Amino acid sequence: MAYSFPEEVLEYVFAFLSSDKDRNAVSLVCKSWYEIERWCRRRIFIGNCYAVSPQIVIRRFPEVSAVKIKGKPHFADFNLVPEGWGAYLYPWISAMARSYPWLEEIKLKRMVVTDESLELISKSFKNFKVLVLSSCEGFTTDGLASIAANCRNLRELDLKESEVEDLSGHWLSHFPDNFTSLVSLNMSCLGSEVSFSALERLVSRCPNLKTLRLNRAVPVEKLPSLLRRAPQLVEFGTGAYSAEIRTDIFSNLVEAFSGCKHLKSLSGFWDVVPAYLPAMYNVCSRITSLNLSYATVQSPDLVELISQCPNLKCLWVLDYIEDAGLKALSSYCKDLQELRVFPSDPYGAEPNVSLTEQGLVTVSAGCPKLQSVLYFCRQMSNAALIAIARNRPNLIRFRLCIIEPQAPDYLTLEPLDTGFGAIVEHCKQLRRLSLSGLLTDRVFEYIGTHAEKLEMLSIAFAGDSDLGLHYVLSGCESLRKLEIRDCPFGDKALLANAAKLETMRSLWMSSCSVSYGACKLLGQKMPRLNVEVIDERGPPDSRPETCPVEKLYVYRTVAGPRVDKPDFVWTMDEDAALRLS
Amino acid sequence: MELELGLALPNQTPMEIKRHIKQKREFAEALENGDIENKKLCLLLWSGQPDEEDDDRRGSQRTDINKRINEEEDIIVGWPPINSVRKELLHHHQQYHGGNWIARVPGRDNNNGARNRISLLVKVKMEGVAIGRKIDLRLFNSYQALKHTLLHMFSKYLKIDRNGNEYTVLYQDKEGDWLLAGDVPWETFMESVQRMEILRNDS
């Protein structure tokens, strides 16, 4: 009975496992595999910063070089999570600074990051390489200056869509003159102008620069200078793409773009003057990703551009593209995998563009590889949804936002249950779904029954009763994240499916009918869940137990109730838990 | 045997129960040596059928949602689901190109919150219009832009002369006094405005 391989061999084998799922599985085999695995895991993903504590992570995984942490729930993007709720980075950095001196990568999403944290990062990790701050907030450009000044081996600085207090553009000038390691820079969310000469010099001395996403303050006439210094660029984001139309600017742009033989991705395009778009035509045949979602360009100009991009895989665009433009897309871009159409006038009472359900149906028919959709529109029908489902059973992500809440099928005035039902029935690989429109409990029956691979579900203004929630929680075997707002779901379904919540990352319910009493019960019976009541009306104790809570956030955790709660958050049954421990 | 622990609703099959157990094990920290909880994780035995209570609640819940949409100043927080980066972009565009656009940036009512939340929501009432509106003043930088947007906003309720010459915009300051909008510098106005009202000149 040979006792398997020596540790070194196992460790060598484990090194080939990159997915967390595989590594987690390996660590459950036996004690010695658990031990070997934990010493050689280098990359950690923490989907909910409160599901675990820095101390627990560090104790288990002593030699980590890359960390990815997510903080606030997704609905924070839409202002549903009050400010001050939490997700502070500092405790993580402070702990990791002591234990992971060789940390190289920090990727964050929806965390509160301070200048202090950024400074600590820049000074604690000698070989720091990658900083990605996605939808984060709480820091200023001073924090960026620390990173620029101190991280000698920095490769990637990506601010994605963070909210940065922009004190000045001076931070960029803090990159030392002998700093040459930059591979990726995304500063598109910043407002202030950086020193252009500092930017030029930075770009010139970083030969490995592959991604450069500028901010709006960089005018179009300055782009050629940058492009000429970085012909190796693969991803480029322009600044404001507008200027008085001048032939010399135009021809400089054409020439500069032509020199970039490796460009695959373009973005930026604020304030686009359509006349400048053709300057990019030379590179369009290689383009696989195009983000025009800030470009207020009308359909004909969009079609002109898109018709030059036969290899397009990913398109983000405003609804100015209209049904006609989507028809063109479906005929020119047969490789399309991802489409996002954003609204140009979401708060207007009347439609301002001719974009309907038809556009999406056409793309679903014409683009055989389409797997990921985000679509804002003002009308939808069951027939359209059924057609989309039949056309594209390979859909993985389907997020539909019909702008008017509870809008019915505009042809029949019926709920859209059967339409979404068809989506989950045909698209067996569906992992993410966002619903909208008029929906009864029936749609949830379809989802619970058919959506076996569904991991994330977003629901708003839908359903009739607890039954709807019950269908979802008792079905949907792969469900990890459920976020619900303004639905008549209450205590029964939640309590009857309490066990399900331990199999999920989190549940968000706001403006629903879950009572304080039910929250307390849930918190009492489920010690491995944090049941957070978020209520800005004051302590829930001051109201009857039957009174519904404003917002409820439930997540599994091994770290117990958190200690950094603001005064409008209560963890249910925290007191009892403390008494028992 | 683990299967007896009532981990699932009564009408579930053994296969489904096994799946629950599998999921539980996957979640458990490293090595729980067979220490499966003995608790009843189903906190409520429920047949899953809607009962009369639900019918009543269903009706009133629907009304509640409608009330929130129609009554309270026409606002649905966080809807449509667009993030703040995109919202600011839309506003920037609308300011220069017109359009009936109102900010929806709720926060808590204390304006001395952290630096990055920029929201100064004030109520605006128009004479003759039952429904008041809320507007985020931080997204404007002049009285001109503000008045223009206000009149656009209310024009769907009353026929309004687009020049707005027939209307006076008043605001209530921190002391509770009603003043004419436009008299003090914009910054001063921003610091003290609590709410606003639009009156017709011939009243």
From TrEMBL, chain A:
UniProt-listed SMART domains: FBOX, LRR_CC
Localization of this protein: Nucleus
Listed InterPro entries: COI1_F-box, F-box-like_dom_sf, F-box_dom, Leu-rich_rpt_Cys-con_subtyp, LRR_dom_sf, Transp_inhibit
A Pfam entry, by short name: F-box_5
Record keywords: Auxin signaling pathway, Developmental protein, Nucleus, Ubl conjugation pathway
CC terms in the record's Gene Ontology section: nucleus
Residue ranges of domain F-box in the record: 5-46
GO biological process, one term: pollen maturation
GO molecular function, one term: auxin binding
Pathway: Protein modification; protein ubiquitination
Keyword Heme: no
Coiled-coil annotated spans: none
Domain of life: Eukaryota
Primary location group: nucleus
PANTHER family: F-BOX/TPR REPEAT PROTEIN POF3, PROTEIN TRANSPORT INHIBITOR RESPONSE 1
Protein name, UniProt field: Protein TRANSPORT INHIBITOR RESPONSE 1
Organism from which the protein derives: Abeliophyllum distichum
Lineage start: Eukaryota, Viridiplantae, Streptophyta, Embryophyta, Tracheophyta
Automatic annotation (TrEMBL), chain B:
Top-level taxonomic group: Eukaryota
Keywords: Auxin signaling pathway, Nucleus, Repressor, Transcription, Transcription regulation
GO CC terms of this entry: nucleus
Gene Ontology terms: biological process: auxin-activated signaling pathway
The protein's assembly and partners: Homodimers and heterodimers.
Record's function text: Aux/IAA proteins are short-lived transcriptional factors that function as repressors of early auxin response genes at low auxin concentrations.
Name under which the protein is recorded: Auxin-responsive protein
Source organism (scientific name): Abeliophyllum distichum
